[in-house]
Amino acid sequence: MATLNIKHLPETLYRKLKARAKRERRSVAQEVTVLLEEALQQPVPHSVLELRGLGKELWRGIDATAHVASERAAWR
Question: Could you tell me the pTM of the whole model?
Fold first, then answer.
């Protein structure tokens, strides 16, 4: 198992990390490992069907097909 040393860690950040570890009943090293795992996890892709209705108020009056076409054209 690898070892990670962090130099110049601000004291305020360390205190927050230590408090969080205590709340979660973990050591500081365990808490850092959990936080790094969460931060580096690949996001789960969502299906378009799962997104149905999400943000529909933002799309009111906008032709979604035309919008997608213009977005794709912008990336060419």
Answer: 0.57
